[in-house]
Structure formats: structure tokens, C-alpha cells
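Researcher: I'm preparing a figure for a lab meeting and need a structural model of a single chain. I don't have an experimental structure, so a prediction will have to do for now. The sequence is pasted below. Please return the structure as C-alpha cells so I can convert it later.
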Amino acid sequence: MDRPDNDTYFMRMAELVATRSTCLRRKVGAVVVKEKRVLTTGYNGAPKGLRHCAEVGCVRLENHVESGTRHELCRGVHAEQNAVIQAAYFGVSIKDSTIYTTNFPCVMCAKILVNAGVREIVYKDEYVDELSRKVLSESGVAVRRFDSGARAGGAAGE
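Model: Understood. Here is the structure written out cell by cell.
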């Protein structure tokens, strides 16, 4: 039986969530999990009720803003931020949870995840943000890259 381990299962969910992204530059998905149960999800895109970037354009693209810099020059909310916001909106504690995200979090998301009490970050793809790495290292939050090679039963996260 080719049953995915928990890491694979939750990362596949994050990849599916990312398909809802309305960002023109990078589609990111996040899934917050505790005790092998999904608590919240989030993807990157414009705030609720605002027009999507595909309709109004991307300030970062138009101004050739380098990836990993000037995060404030974006009308979108990041996937990790949306997952934390969703938890707050519905009154769900994510303290001591794990977040699965398709990209390494930026420094803004890292700080939010630390303060929200997330204990582990599992990411798939790299994202260049050295300050984020320093913040996470100092915070004690466990960070690990998803091992796509551990696919079948009983592997990591089982």
C-alpha cells in the first residue's frame, strides 16, 4: 500500500491550498496541524473583499522589487499570515502546532509564527530571507525542509 506519511500528506494539502493563491509572482500555501489534525489553512492573496492582483496589477512586479525584500510593498497577505488570521478569526489556538508551508517563511511571517506559539515549521521550497533564518534560529522554533523522498507509510511525522 502506498500510503503517504504525515509530512507528505500535510505538504500535499499545502500544495493544494496554494492553488487558491491570487498572487502573480509566487503561489504559496500553508496548513497548520496539531496532533495530526488540520486546524487552519492559508494562501497568499489580496485581503478579503479587495480586488485581486490580476485585476489591479502587482506593485512589486511593476517596480522590479527583488524577492525577499520590501515585503510591505505588496497588497497581498502571505499564506502563513492568513493561516494565523484564520485561527484567530475562528478562535482556534495554534499554540504548539506545526505549520506546513510550500515556501520558507519571510521574516514577517516568521515573527508572527513565533508569537503565535507555532513550535515547528516544515517547508518545501527555499526563500531567500536571512533575517528570517536568524529570527527562527534564535526563537527555538524547529525548522526543517520537507523530505520528498520519505513518501510511504511509517516515515517522518507518522
